[in-house]
Amino acid sequence: MSEWTDMYRQKLTTPEEAVKVVKSGDWVEYGMATTQPILLDEALANRKSELKDVKVRTSFSFSPRQVVEKDPNRETFTVSNWHMSGYDRKKCALGQMNFSPFCYRNEPSLYRNILDVDVAMIQVAPMDKHGFFNFGLNVSATEAITKKAKKVIVEVNESMPRVLGGRGECIHISDIDAIVEAGNTPQPTIPFSTGDEIDTKIAEMIVKEIPNGATLQLGVGGLPNTIGAMIADSDLKDLGMHTEMLVDAFYLMYKKGRLTNKVKELDTDKAVWSFALGSKEMYDWVDNNPFLAAYPVEYVNDPFVISQMDNFISINNCIDVDLFGQVSSESAGTKQISGSGGQLDFADGAYRSKGGKSFIAFRSTFTNKKTGKTESRILPTLTPGTTVTDPRSQVHWLVTEYGMVNMMGKSTWERAEGLISLAHPDFREELIKAAEDMKIWRYSNKR
Q1: 222 is in an annotated binding site
Q2: Where would I find the Acetyl-CoA hydrolase/transferase C-terminal domain in this sequence (predicted)?
Q3: 223 a known binding residue?
Q4: Is-catalytic flag, 155?
Q5: How confident is the model at residue 220 (pLDDT cuts 50, 70, 90)?
Q6: What pLDDT score does 340 carry?
């Protein structure tokens, strides 16, 4: 213990001293969500007048990034982002940040094989008696980032839970160049909230399709939360968890005895995840809990890994779907909303799983905030510039409040028929007309 304590004292410094290692032209890595630095970000931003052409990679920000706030015209710092939060989305729309398209599963290999990292600044949990700092709520690609970096600075936050692996969840003090202490800064939280009667109707259809012993992946948002809460209140038994994002719905399932992981073919008895965002109560559950196992995203999101678990059920939502079955879950036209994430990986892996199913669930309409009008999420074709997250060839089940349709193996006219049956009745006639114009509507199709 004394050896690591002595090394800790030697490497402990101030944020201002630590960021002096950054040089003009460097690539600086902030990591994702809860691993992003606070004090180091502020200190680096304060060096704006001393530096030139510093590139910063970040992802899923839950507090303002000072390298953006203090340099809105990007005179010194060019910030790129792997996955958009609400804050990131606004900055991207203003031209103060750029989006980096990627397959989330590939992130660790991108760092190992392609990307340069001069300095990594990562928030961690306090050092343990063996000299290890824990990455806490975001394992994801953090280990790959720190291994590639020429210099590693950790920002120690006493509020960061210590998570168990799996693998890739920690870094040893001998691999760290500088340590900064951040006290006890609360971790960002997302309140758990379920949807309304429309979400409940969608959830009821999906929950009926889940067998005992199924392994689950859930996306984020009110609709997946509603589904998760309904599963928790069901009589399903021995469910497993294998999900990129750990959310409160799983904690609720655990508390009500649904989540045991006893019959999973892989990581039996362990609830597997890659990053976590939710309530303080969930973070307390994650802390030092052997029931859970954190892994890098290249393992969690690997379709081959997912496919080895029987009755794998993947549940996600989306922004728009067109009559050909193409799904966008990340952009509206050229406006970047979030990112690709692992939706396609889980859709593919769940379909390959014995008894598995992938569900893309969404409300049939939304209210346009600018016009106040109700618009259909099912479109003749996606708006120009919209990113296709799931190609039509890999979409399994689509679900709205009007029903559910299996898209696998369907011709273009069958797809059009199925999708129009999921649309709000007010939009069906115009969708039929569009399908006729595109020659994907059969004369005998249902109206």
Answers
A1: yes
A2: 278-435
A3: yes
A4: no
A5: confident
A6: 87
